[in-house]
Amino acid sequence: MSGLTGLFGLVADDIIAAQAELNSLDAVAGDGDLGLTMTTAAEAVKALLPDLEGMELAAALKRCGAELARKAPSTSGTLFATALLRAGAAAGQDSASREAPVATLARLVAAAVEGIQQRGKAKPGDKTLLDALVPASDALARASEAGLDLQTALQQATDAARAGADETRGLRPRVGRASWLADRSEGHEDGGAHLVALVFASALRSLIADAPASPSAA
User: pTM above the 0.85 mark?
Assistant: First the structure.
């Protein structure tokens, strides 16, 4: 579990470091507290890291999801808690132990997408975090079908999330409070989509850091 706790720790640190940027993006057509909320969530996860050592993936994801639901019960906190809980449920399925890592990751992210869509009643194109998460999920599904290795798959998902977040600048929000201030939002990146892109980039960095070093040339 050290690799997973390292990943969670790095993602949490990157979210905390981006607090001001996330608040600024959210303030365009929202409450301006996305960074504060997600920092609270990240700090809650960091406090859990010692307890996560030795846990199975499914149990660790569910524990993090439950902690986010308890410590960060805002709209964004609830959506990310739902994503973790759904991914944890998917990780506990019998097929997980027989899958390649990329197939498992693709399935877990797809479960997270489904949970967020059901909970938030949004869809791609509504200028939400789904505009980054769905392209990342689709990229992982394609990578799994192509038999790509985990680092390549995660790189493609990260690129897709970043492109999706960038494209939200041209969208008008259609759900939540942001839809009331749609004109103000035009031309600005969605904070939730930016956060998703950040999470995937952090996960990729963690994977690269954990990869064994190439042997030196003789």
Answer: yes
